[in-house]
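Recall that a protein's primary structure is simply its ordered list of amino acids. Everything else, from secondary elements to tertiary packing, is in principle encoded there. The following example makes that idea concrete.
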Amino acid sequence: MVSRTWGWFHDPKAMLALLKHQARQPAIDISLIMADPKHPEQILVLGPLSDEMACYPFLDVTHHFRRLGVKRSLAEHYIRVIQAGGIVVAVDRPAYSGTLSPTWQPATP
């Protein structure tokens, strides 16, 4: 069962503002922020942003990751992160096919 949900932000500035706000909250732990060095506006965040995030077990999360062109092994990795209580948040840029590229490097929050 998926313990956290995941969301997309069309506006990178809006997402970064949310992260900045959430990072100041007590008991909020942002585990990892990853950014594509070629497209720094594309950001993937792993880690619980809020204890109030709803659970959506009816979502076929694997299907959504695969639909984005993510390799099966990487999609399964993200599913394990979510099942462990993490949340995946990304900037939705349909023009970029590598939104969740395995070549992304960790960036400092």
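Residues 55 and 103 are 29 Å apart (CA to CA). The two ends are 28 Å apart (CA to CA).
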